[in-house]
Structure formats: structure tokens, C-alpha cells
Amino acid sequence: MNRQVKKVGIIGGGQLARMSILAGYPLGFDFGVIDPSENAPARHLAQLFIKASFDDIEAQKRLANWADVITYDIEKIETSWLVEAEQQGLQIFPSPQILAIIQDKLVQKQFFYKRGIPVPEIYTDSSEIKNFPVVAKARRGGYDGQGVWMVNSPEELKILPDIPIYFEEKVDIHKELGVMIARDYWGEIVIYPIVEMIFEHRRHILKFLKAPAQLDVNTLKQVREVSYEIARVLESPGIYGIELFFDTKGRILLNEVAPRPHNLGHYSIEACSTSQFENHIRAITGLPLGYPTLRKPAVMINLLCPPKGEGLLSFEGLEKALRLPEVHVHLYGKWQAKPFRKVGHVTVIRDSLEEAWDMALKVDKMIRITVKSEQWQDV
Questions:
Q1: E strand or H helix that includes residue 150
Q2: Domain that holds residue 243
Q3: What is the Cβ-side half-sphere exposure of residue 301, based on CA atoms within 13 angstroms?
Q4: What DSSP line would sit under 287-329, residue for residue?
């Protein structure tokens, strides 16, 4: 591993890149970014900005010529050249071979199933379905509730979109859990606190997150064991976001893995000894991992655009929220409204989870996001 890393290239310039850069600056690194948007959240923090598609191989080569190591803040990128470049010695973490597996959700589930990770029952084709209802999922490109359809009968199979799809059993979910895991170049693994995710029901986008999740000792042990095994089989440095189902039968089942910083780890900036973003930078640059210890219970709130309207965003109530102790506001620099778009988050820290939850509900009502009629292009 080259310990003389000075320049980090990131494919993707969204809020994850933005917060990774902010975490990496105190460690002395410079950053370059590829993003198609002129107003990408990470643009003005990067020493090098390349305005290009995530699939632009020439842009990837330009970034590689500048950087000592490459990572990404989004899965939806072209991996063919990156795989070749890694085989020729370019440092890319997590490995683009891992990314290529994770990009196809069916391949991802099969990969983990073959390695002993518990997953929901999978049907590669509708002819294999034993019982309805089932969940249909797009193999590629789905996120934040998109690319997922409930199928209640054989007749409903006919109205699914004509794209590559696979099917999963409908899990009777008790809680949706998440955990961030970091792995360094030497195989050292740290596991962040297990958290509970609460979703915005209309689009199944994460709305609230509770850290730590309120679980019995045996369930906590089971989640940690599954998480550790996932990190072990991935065999590549970086941070990984793991989403899990805890069902009414007591099963812990893998939903999906993201090979990058993740929304479910944002609370760690203020609530943990080392944030997910700092540990990601440490992992990919050959530095020792920091402790993921939870300092105090926390609740994170995603700030989401209204379900209707496009235009410029306006935030109301921020001043009131900012006057409150241990209420931490993060805005991503996304000023153009899109339905349910994530434009920021708030982390509330208190001595108990109950206190943090009560305050989070108040803060959520306090901050209102409205949309003006003016249009702003390319954001």
C-alpha cells in the first residue's frame, strides 16, 4: 500500500463527497471530483473539478492521472475501465470489482448468499415464484424507494416495467436496521453502532434514524456477526453501508450493501468518536481506522423536499433550530427542489435516546422547506 497518498479522487460530487472532503482536510489530503453538475455540492471544496458524466472514461483517466487513490460516492458509474486500471496497479477503493457486483442487486444477493450471509428468498424469474405477494426489484439503478414494486398476484406481473427485474419474498418486517462497517488495507474491521431506520412511507426514503437501535442482546449479537462477516468477505478497504431487515420471525436478513459512505452513517459526524467519512478516508489512504464509539444517543432527521413543486428552495425555522443545544444542521448546497430530494440533515444528541427522539420530532416540525417559483438550471 502506498503510504504517500496526498491526492484523493472521487467519482461523484454529491453530499457524500462533500462531507468526505471536509473529513479529509484535517488529515492533509487534496481532493479531485468528477460530477456532471456545474453546481455539485463538492465542487467548490475540491482542488480539481471535472465536469463530466460518471460514465465518461476519459474523465476517469484524467482523474486517475491526478490522484494517488480513487474512490466514489455513488454506485451508478461505469466500471469497465476502472477494473482494468485496478489490475494494472491503480489504487481504487473499494475495489471496482466489488462495485460491479453490488451494482446488480440480483448478483449482489447471490454473491452474499453463496458466502453464507442470510438474505430473503430470491426468485430470478417470475416462473419460480411460489407464493404471493412478492417484491419486484430493478436489478440496476433503483434507490430511495425507486425501482421497487409490490406484486400481490400473478396478474400484477403483467404491469411491471420492461426492464431487468428479480423477485424477493415479502418480508414481514419488525424493524429496518442499518450499520456502517469500515475495513482497512490490512483487514482490520470496525463496526459502528447498530441503528434503526424509519422511512418516509410515500417513497420509502429514510426520514429518521435512531442510534443506537433498541434491541435485545441476542439480536445485537446476531447483527454484529452478520455485519462482520459481510466486511470480511468484501476484502477491500473502505466504508460500507449495510441495510438489514429484522423480521417478525426474529431473522436478520441482508437487504443491500453500499460500498461508500451512506445516509445511515451521517449521525456519526457529531455522535461518534470517528465519523464514517473520516474512517472512509483513513481506510482508502492506508491510515489506521479510528474508533467508532457512540459518545451519546442520537437521532438523525433527513431534510426532504416537498412531494410536489420544482424551483428554488427556501428553509424556514433554521434559526430556531440552530439556537438549540446539540442540534447540528447540515445543508448540502442543493438549492433546486425536486420531489423528496435529500437536501440536508439534522443530528440531535441527548443523554438518552428518548430525549433525542422527542427533540428530533420538534425540530422536524420547526424546519419547513418551501419552494419558490424561480427556476435554476443545472443544479
A1: strand 148-151
A2: 173-371
A3: 25
A4: PPPPP--B-S-EEEEEEE--SS--SBEEEESHHHHHTSTTEEE
Does one domain contain both 87 and 137?
no
Please say which residue of 135, 169, 203 terminates a domain: 169
User: Is 263 among the domain residues?
Assistant: yes
CA 161, 153, 255, 265 dihedral sign is positive
**Per the structure, how many domains does the chain have?**
3
Q: What is the pLDDT of residues 233-271, one digit of tens each?
A: 999 999 999 999 999 999 999 999 999 999 999 999 999
For 271-284, write each residue's pLDDT tens digit.
999 999 999 999 99
Q: What is the pLDDT, as a whole number, of residue 308?
A: 85
Q: Are residues 21 and 141 in the same domain?
A: no
Dihedral class, residue 38 (left if φ above 0, else alpha if ψ from -120 to 50, else beta)? alpha
Q: Give mean pLDDT, residues 25-41.
A: 96
Residues 27-30: contacts with CB within 8 Å, 24+ apart?
A: 27/278, 27/281, 27/282, 27/285, 27/287, 29/5, 29/281, 29/285, 30/6
Do 140 and 282 lie in one domain? The reply is no
* Percent of the chain clearing pLDDT 70 (strictly above): 97
Residue 111 lies in a domain: no
Which residue(s) pair with 299 in the sheet? 210, 348
Give the side-chain half-sphere CA count within 13 A for 323. Answer: 6
Residue 56 clears pLDDT 70, i.e. is over it: yes
For the entire predicted model, the pTM comes to 0.94
Question: Does any domain span residue 102?
Answer: no
